[in-house]
Amino acid sequence: MIVEERQERLLAVIQKHQFISLQELRGVTQTSISTIRRDLASLTDKGLVKRVHGGVEFIAQNKKSSTVSERRPIYQADKQKIAKRAVQQLQGGETIFLDAGSTTGEVIAYLADKKPAITVVTNSVHHAANLSDLMIPVLIIGGQVKQTTDAVIGAAAVEQIKNMVFDVSFVGADGISVEFGLTTPDLEEAAVKRAVVERSHVSYVLADASKIGIASFAKAVALKEVVLVTTNLVSQQRDELKQVMKVLVV
Asked: CA 83, CA 87: separation in Å to the nearest integer?
């Protein structure tokens, strides 16, 4: 495992627990203390964690203020793997919904070679432009554009979605929680995701390991309604999730 991927796994564990001791990290990650110390030094320099007496503490980021372009480089390698695995579920010729977000955006690069051509419906201005550049047939949902997430939201967007049917949808999430389901910070974004899942034959949630165990403000759907595509999880996370939903791990 390359250093970047190892550190991403480590950060996901710390985020889930918020505070964890070095010995607990060693047991969960099966990594030596010396390696953990080096990785923690790097994560500390990036402002992602803080070393405190007895262990390490996650530094919460303000997701409401971060834009899609700011989030895109985070967990980049994992997002690309997740997107590639998700597109492998397509046969070609489907009509799909592509949700706004940095992880779902990674799907676009893998769609160009799908034959017959995929038709994409999206609620992202950014995604629509990139799809058009690749000559992929695209329809963009209309409504209010939320600038920080690049998502088209609101009653008009939901009403349009309710008049469509999708073979497959690829949906993003800010949190995946066994207790609270698929969540996002915004009630209107949650309403769009809920409408999409209701109008899809199958819905895949694309989320890296940092989203697992997190509950954001607004619930979109129950986990049983979607299939999770994610990166390698610690065994406890994987076992808990598989009790309530189907999980595809890259």
From this structure: 6
One-letter amino acid for residue 59 of the chain = I
All residue ranges of the chain with pLDDT < 70 are: 1, 60-74, 233-235
Q: Do residues 125 and 145 lie in contact, with contact meaning Cβ atoms separated by under 8 Å?
A: yes
pLDDT value of residue 113? 84
Helices 3-17 and 22-29: angle between axes, nearest 10 degrees: 120
